[in-house]
Amino acid sequence: MEILNNKGFCVSLIDINRTRMNKLVKVGLHPRQIAWGMSRICCEHSPGTSSKRYERYQRQPQNVDLPELLPKKKKKPFPVPIKKMLQASRQDKRLARMRIEKPLEPPKNGLLVPELIPVAYEVLDNWKVLIRGLSQLLSVVTVYGCRKCPQVHVGPVGHQIQDCYGTGSQRRNSHHSWVRGSVNDVLIPIESYHQFDPFGWRVKHETRFDYDRIPAIVELCIQAGVELPQYPSRRRTAPVRMIGKKVIDRGGFVDGPKPHCSEDCISLLAELDTFSNQQGQSSTPLNVEELAEKTLKAYLNVRRGVARLMRKYTVKTCGYCSEVHVGPWGHNVKLCGAFKHQWRDGKHGWQDAVVDDVIPPNYVWHVCDPTGPPLRSSLRSFYGKAPSVVELCVQAGAEIPEEYRPMMRADVVIPDSEEARLAA
């Protein structure tokens, strides 16, 4: 007899010993010999096939839900627990009251980390490959963007899922108003201010036009050791010294050199910015599948490299909007228009950033069969989602990465509209 509990463990009852004994019992006037059969039963636990199936599902689930969308009237969660932040703040205040210098390690003291310089160059090279590949794949795979809301769809035709919340959505029954998209719809541009000295003058609201806006990934690579002639950066030989939150020695304030403009610099900047790689400017690739695999590999390498750099280098993001700043402190530009910005006088609520703040995944609906009918609202519970870059490369012929397969629900069979109501 086997019993299966809710966790997949198999419990069996096994008869391991059976004996027979005789005993004299008086029945009436004559004694008689009666035999009893006795058995010994023990409980045994054995992980059966259901347990192995449960463990295999835990390692590679069939479908995974996306992270919950945070409401706009709520601040982003802190990547570091508040208790640890308060503990570190109290430790800094204790050292500051004792006039003890705060111990800083590279790159917190302004010096470079030598082992991360090759990582920064690798991230920048993969970033160029990613932008160039997306601009070429857009001539093969069609991308649509809604004119009324920020949703994007990758496929030959726009989907018919009624989830538009833009202007006039009630008149359109929440249907989207699709138009042809570009690289910026697939890879959301996140820019930040470039500073010659991140530990120098802070960017103020009055001086915001004195600084260039470049992709946050490029600025992170520059501060990690990449040398670009168009955007020079100060390389310190002496560390920055601090007591608490006050800088006592930064080596003085140094103004940045004048920008050096040349044809090489202009061509280099065209490779780093998504605005200069719009649809229609790149030719159709010869080997589409190879280009899709190369582009998808570059995207995954960029995310891994940025995550590795952000473990050491400080990147700040606003807790209410999508603004990102690369450096030890956030800027003082008053351009935040998110929830309760009047209470903050338009200033951003800075906190530590995560990889998704620097490279937003921009999830889109996964289309299993691009040649089939468009996606419908009645079957939306069976559809999966994936980052727009991954979906674009997969439709171009690339293999689905294992980490995104449960999210895309590649192993889920989509039923017909008549069979959907019979599905559990």
From TrEMBL:
What residues form the membrane-spanning segments? none
The organism's place on the tree of life at top rank: Eukaryota
InterPro entries, A to Z: APO_dom
Q: Which residues form the APO domain?
A: 145-230, 317-402
Give this protein's Gene Ontology molecular function annotations: RNA binding
The name of this protein is: APO domain-containing protein
